[in-house]
Amino acid sequence: xxxxxxxxxxxxxxxxxxxxxxxxxxxxxxxxxxxxxxxxxxxxxxxxxxxxxxxxxxxxxxxxxxxxxxxxxxxxxxxxxxxxxxxxxxxxxxxxxxxxxxxxxxxxxxxxxxxxxxxxxxxxxxxxxxxxxxxxxxxxxxxxxxxxxxxxxxxxxxxxxxxxxxxxxxxxxxxxxxxxxxxxxxxxxxxxxxxxxxxxxxxxxxxxxxxxxxxxxxxxxxxxxxxxxxxxxxxxxxxxxxxxxxxxxxxxxxxxxxxxxx
Length: 262
Ligand SMILES: C[S@@+](CC[C@H](N)C(=O)[O-])C[C@H]1O[C@@H](n2cnc3c(N)ncnc32)[C@H](O)[C@@H]1O
What we know:
Structural class: alpha/beta
Strand order of the largest sheet: 3-2-1-4-5-9-8
CATH architecture: 3-Layer(aba) Sandwich
Number of domains: 1
Radius of gyration: 18 Å
GO molecular function: N-terminal protein N-methyltransferase activity
Order of helices and strands: HHHHEHEHEHEHEEEHEE
Helix content: 25-40%
Number of strands: 9
Bound molecules: S-adenosylmethionine
Pfam families: Methyltransf_PK
EC number: 2.1.1.244
Keywords: Methyltransferase, S-adenosyl-L-methionine, Transferase
Largest sheet: 7 strands, mixed
Strand content: 15-25%
Shape: globular
Binding site for S-adenosyl-L-methionine: 105, 110, 169
CATH class: Alpha Beta
């Protein structure tokens, strides 16, 4: 699932492929980057995903896959990451509040309440599961709430203006590669000058550097290489990137990327 999650088992990380090879064996060092057939994201089924999330408890533990203890360190890391971006910014300095930001795939509003309302005047929320958004709707600082998946969110049509930050965390694994690229391509017209698209996600540690499909919530966990390739295809540049420190051992590494249109 895109929430904090246990890494693949060690023997899955290191063992050689068990299928017969059609080409000469290669060593780990010369192993070419592979795309499995069918690609992991082809298994994504949004009906199954929504059925999983709709039956999940509307709590921090629920949205964090049973690892609520990760929330504090995650929010601290995110706050530092954003503050560093703003310290180097003329358009969005830390000396004044951001005007409008949006929490995408927001769940119960853990990041909205734990970080974004503190740094922005208005925080919009995009989240397909209504039971989750009931927890955050109407709270101080919360603006529009869109109960749709990111693949069906067309922010320019909503006419609410520009976002200084578009925060996407532990949710873009619910989108196929093509949906993710199309979504990123829709964002530049609603991003303020000098604003950032943040993507904070688990990274796959697969031994063949492949993305990993998770049938629990019908999502994929991507590699760092894949993320960067998709950003490139969407016309985005990575202006800053950082590994989340202090994640418990045994969970996937988590990386934040700050993107701006090229
Ligand atoms: C692991 S939770 C993360 C929630 C929140 N970002 C956080 O970090 O607390 C994943 C969230 O993605 C939502 N989700 C599922 N499918 C989605 C989609 N197609 N687009 C956006 N969000 C989706 C789920 O309902 C769930 O709230």
